UniProtKB/TrEMBL annotation:
Coiled coil ranges: none
UniProt keyword annotations, A-Z: GTP-binding, Nucleotide-binding
Alphabetized PANTHER family for the sequence: RAS-RELATED PROTEIN RAB
Source organism per UniProt: Scytonema tolypothrichoides VB-61278_2
Protein name, UniProt field: Rab family GTPase
Amino acid sequence: MLQKKICMVGAFATGKTSLVSRYVYSIFSEKYQTTVGVKIDKKTINLKGKELNLILWDLYGEDEFQRVRMSYLRGSSGYLLVADGTRHHTLDKALNLRQRVEETIDKVPCILVLNKWDLADEWEIENNEVEQLIQQGLVVIKTSAKTGLNIEEVFQSLASKILEE
């Protein structure tokens, strides 16, 4: 069985923990839980005839008081860059983190997750910005941990990209 480490990276309160909870346990909680350090979950999936053990590292969110420890990323096969569509500055933070991640572990498969699509009418991230990111080569997927929208797709897509490496 192949084992692959995937990190969840992004600003504070973007929904990283909720995405993992929805994917691994099929649950969503309205209660906000701050991740302290790192929370590790795992899920076994079958992909392209291979059994794959995904080790999901949910890293604490970065804010003005604390920076993500890049050492947590070592050994990662890929990562999800998570931004909250209702807070534009979380996209800026995610793109900044992407640069730091690449400086630390080189280029590994990455997907930009724009979370909280269930609040689409409150979004601050414009479609033309999303299109520009896609044109720059980023895979961008809009999700909702609350409704479950595109959660499976995000993890399946990342796992597929990792297997192609």
